[in-house]
Each structure stands twice: as C-alpha cells, then as structure tokens.
C-alpha cells in the first residue's frame, strides 16, 4: 500500500494537471495504510497500518525514518504532539500509545483505553500533556500522558457498551 505525497495544491488553486510535479509515494507498508498525518512543520509524515505499526517518513523524499511497533491490531489513529517529537496512536486493540520519536519507545501504554476500537485523538491547545480520544464505545475520554489510567469519560456519561458492562472481545 502506498501513501502519495504531492508537492503543492495544484488543481485546487487552478494549476493544470500537467504542470503539477510528479507525486512521491511512501510504499513501505506490508498491508493497508491508515490515518496519514503531517507533522506541523510539514517535514515528517506518520501513518498507522493494518499490522499495528506506526511508520514515520520524511515528507520530501518519502524516506522511512521509524517503525514503531506495539499495537496488536490495526493502528487507525495517529496524531502529532505540538512539540513535534511525540505521537499518540490508537488501535483496534482498544489501546493508546504515546511515543517518543528519538528513542522509539512508548512512554505510555493504555491497554483497554476504550471498550471498542479507538478512532480519534486530539491534543489540547492548552496543555501538551492533555489529550482527548474517541472510540466506537461512544465515549470521549480525557487523558494526561504523564499519569497512567487517567482516561476520564467526558461525554456521554452512563451510555454505550461500558455502561452495560460489556467490552468488545480483545479489549
């Protein structure tokens, strides 16, 4: 599977297709690629895949820089931290991981972070350590990556599979 990387915005601003630069492709995935996202400075790209890895590429050259392994199922959510040195990933194994890029280690592993697949993640603009995640369990959770097991369900309270005491198998 490949992720195409285009230089410029081409036809969105009225540039003819033949004038566009040839797209580059990051095709280091052994399976389906998910959730490609650029770092805020545009220099790096991160994506999850069906094997559970998070892969980091140099955007300009599509050079593979890091493969972060830890999830046991597809990684469908990857979000860059504001410091550009950390990533938060969420998986179909219902876990979250907070990655340190220089060391390639998970600084935080939250197994069972949600009762079903994790599908969304966003960092707070007010605090680098605070994140929101969302999942198929119909919960939005608030996390402090400095403190394990801090996921507080913000919305909706008392609904969804967790309220009934059920979890997706494997979560």
Protein described:
With 171 residues, the protein is an all-beta fold. The protein is built from one helix and 14 strands, in the order ββββββββββββββα. The chain has one helix at 160-163; strands spanning 3-5, 24-26, 33-38, 44-49, 54-58, 64-68, 75-80, 86-91, 96-100, 105-110, 118-123, 130-135, 140-144, 152-155. The protein has a four-stranded antiparallel beta sheet, with no helix packed on it. A hairpin with a 4-residue loop joins strand 12 (130-135) and strand 13 (140-144). 33% of the residues are buried. Residues 1-13 and 160-165 have low confidence and may be disordered.
Structural class: mainly beta
Average pLDDT confidence is: 80
Rg computed from alpha carbons, rounded to a whole number of angstroms? 17 Å
- Are there runs of 5+ residues with pLDDT below 50, and where? 1-13, 160-165
Level of helix content? under 10%
Envelope shape: globular
End-to-end gap = 27 Å
Annotation, overall tally of beta strands: 14
Query: Main sheet?
Result: 4 strands, antiparallel
Beta-strand proportion: 35-45%
Following the backbone from N to C, one meets helices and strands in this order, namely EEEEEEEEEEEEEEH
Count of separate DSSP helical elements: 1
Sheet with most strands: strand arrangement: 3-4-5-6
């Amino acid at each position: 599977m490949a992720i195409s990387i285009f230089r410029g915005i081409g036809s969105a601003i009225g540039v003819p297709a033949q004038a566009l630069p040839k797209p580059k492709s990051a095709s280091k995935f052994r399976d389906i690629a998910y959730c490609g996202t650029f770092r805020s400075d545009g220099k790096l790209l991160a994506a999850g895949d069906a094997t559970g890895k998070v892969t980091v590429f140099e955007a300009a050259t599509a050079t593979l820089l890091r493969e972060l392994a830890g999830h046991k199922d597809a990684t469908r959510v990857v979000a860059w931290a504001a410091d550009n040195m950390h990533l938060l990933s969420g998986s179909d194994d219902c876990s979250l991981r907070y990655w340190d890029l220089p060391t390639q280690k998970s600084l935080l592993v939250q197994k069972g972070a949600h009762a079903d697949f994790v599908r969304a993640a966003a960092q707070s603009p007010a605090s680098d350590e605070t994140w929101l995640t969302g999942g198929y369990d119909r919960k939005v959770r608030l996390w402090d990556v400095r403190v394990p097991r801090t996921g507080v369900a913000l919305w909706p309270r008392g609904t969804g599979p967790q309220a009934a005491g059920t979890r997706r198998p494997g979560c």
